[in-house]
Backbone:
């Protein structure tokens, strides 16, 4: 039984692969998407609450995707992972609803820790 | 100009009449300009190529190669095309003046030369040159920043993958495995590359430093990425 389900949206295949391996071996179920549209579909259909989004995505970008997910899933914990921090300011990301922000190349231990904290929060919120 | 801020501007005076040359040199040197001179078009072209003056004061009506021909020749040479040329002329024929501007001159002063008018026109031409240089240098900086940002973005993606795969390997390998230290080095060097791209993305100025003991100049990323 996986510890929880994580959605990774990134248009770079090797980054999706790395994050899938990281989270899978840490006991999480992982869903992957390579575009904003696919990411939104999976997030809403599968009710996923812990999400890692690249900001520079084909179709609608990570900021728009975050806003759309946040509208229907207000309790989701959404992390931005970007290789191009100058496109959006940190304040734009916070305003769009991102809970945290990582710049590439990001250490896997930070991302794993972020996922663990996110699931701890969700668990706490559910048991209140 | 930028790299010799406190030195006087260097003006090349060209006139076939040595009396005019002497008069103009005295007038300009009194005002703090550094001057040198030529008395025909051929010498003028050779001096411009060798001495790179900040401005040329050029008589139109010279025997042999006229001032307008000299101007055309200098404007065709990439090395000299940006040197501003102010014509000297006793002629007020509008067609000649039209041709002078079309050849690439930025202004003209009529003979007999009036000191105040000459200085005002020189100052205006030199200011215009500096403004153009400043605009070009800002454009160069903007290009550097945009190119640096685009390159960093492209590099950050594969770097994240390399770093990630190295970290996954470290999770798999026992600490005493013979490959463990090498994978740790891959991780450390990739993190180092990440720090470099972060600095590049913070570039705000265009500054260079000596490379290979001054053989060449390269962009100084540390100084260029400093705030302000």
Residues:
């Amino acid at each position: 039984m996986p510890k929880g389900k994580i959605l990774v949206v990134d248009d770079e295949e090797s980054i999706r692969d790395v994050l899938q391996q990281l989270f899978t071996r840490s006991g999480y179920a992982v869903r992957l998407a390579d575009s904003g549209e696919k990411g939104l579909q999976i997030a809403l259909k599968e009710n996923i609450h812990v999400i890692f989004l690249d900001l520079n995505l084909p179709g609608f970008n990570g900021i728009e995707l975050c806003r759309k997910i946040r509208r229907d899933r207000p309790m989701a914990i959404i992390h931005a992972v970007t290789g191009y921090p100058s496109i959006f300011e940190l304040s734009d990301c916070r305003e769009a609803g991102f809970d945290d922000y990582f710049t590439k190349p990001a250490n896997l231990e930070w991302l794993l820790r972020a996922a663990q904290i996110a699931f701890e929060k969700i668990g706490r919120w559910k048991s209140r | 100009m930028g790299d010799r801020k406190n030195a006087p501007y260097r003006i090349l005076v060209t006139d076939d009449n040595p009396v005019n040359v002497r008069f103009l040199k005295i007038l300009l040197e009194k005002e703090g300009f550094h001057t040198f001179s030529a008395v025909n078009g051929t010498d003028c072209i050779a001096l411009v190529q060798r001495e790179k003056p900040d401005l040329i004061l050029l008589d139109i009506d010279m025997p042999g190669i006229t001032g307008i021909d000299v101007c055309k020749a200098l404007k065709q040479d990439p090395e000299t095309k940006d040197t501003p040329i102010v014509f000297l002329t006793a002629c007020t024929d509008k067609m000649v003046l039209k041709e002078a501007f079309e050849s690439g001159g930025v202004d003209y002063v009529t003979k007999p030369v009036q000191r105040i008018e000459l200085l005002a026109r020189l100052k205006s031409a030199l200011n215009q040159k500096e403004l153009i240089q400043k605009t070009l240098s800002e454009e160069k900086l903007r290009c550097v920043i945009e190119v640096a940002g685009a390159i960093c973005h492209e590099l950050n993606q594969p770097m994240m993958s390399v770093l990630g795969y190295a970290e996954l390997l470290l999770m798999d390998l026992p600490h005493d495995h013979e490959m463990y230290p090498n994978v740790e080095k891959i991780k450390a060097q990739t993190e180092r590359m990440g720090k470099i791209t972060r600095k590049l993305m913070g570039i705000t100025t265009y500054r260079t430093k000596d490379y290979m003991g001054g053989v060449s100049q390269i962009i100084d990323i540390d100084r260029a990425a400093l705030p302000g």
Summary: Chain A has one domain: 5-122. The interface with chain B takes residues 12, 14-15, 17-19, 21-22, 25, 56, 83-86, 103-109 of chain A (CB under 8 Å). Residues 30 and 79 of chain A are 15 Å apart (CA to CA).
